[in-house]
Amino acid sequence: MPALKPTEFMGRVVWLGVNQDRAAALESTSRDVLSLPFGGPPEESHSGVTRRSCSRVSRQYPKGTEIANTRQVSIVSEEDLALIAQDMGLARIEPEWLGVSMVVAGIPDFSLIPPSSRLQDDASGTTLVVDMENRPCHLVSAVIERGYPGIGKRFKPAARNRRGVTAWVERPGEIALGATLRLHIPDQPVWPHLATARNG
């Protein structure tokens, strides 16, 4: 029995990019096509089948532990970027500032899509698996602050539940600008004890 449900929610790819040297800078550089082998975009600083654990999994592993890399790609929505900019009092938030790999348009509340959802290119079948919601961080605030002094600190509250998701490659291939990604979601109910677990 299939465990994933194709939906009619479609995302159009409106921006692609890579961050080639995370140690040097957070910002990403735009691309027309993203090559996606199993390890993620080869040029991307977050690529690889494994990675070193970071703050997002600090309660599970000591920092620097080698773990499977479920953070190969960072995806945000055009709609969420517009809302972040609006709340910050800016005309626009550029995807480069966030160091993202991809911007999609057309999927509402994109940052809250369920973990383990798939984003599948309708034409090529290239598929990304959503790991989890991304979290706003002070590093983006610092990038914005350089261009807009006094504004950078507004990023974290404005980007709460709008920072997009992290994902990894399940079926390799390429995704190009203008591609259409269909959202597939896990066909299971919400765990009844979720609120208790979160508050415990």
UniProtKB/TrEMBL annotation:
Span of domain MOSC: 40-184
PROSITE patterns reported in the protein's UniProt record: MOSC (PS51340)
Positions of region (Disordered): 32-54
InterPro entries (UniProt xref): MoCF_Sase_C, MOSC_domain, Pyrv_Knase-like_insert_dom_sf
Coiled-coil blocks: none
Domain of life, per lineage: Bacteria
PANTHER family: METAL-SULFUR CLUSTER BIOSYNTHESIS PROTEINS YUAD-RELATED, MOSC DOMAIN-CONTAINING PROTEIN
Protein name per UniProt: MOSC domain-containing protein
Species of provenance: [Roseibacterium] beibuensis
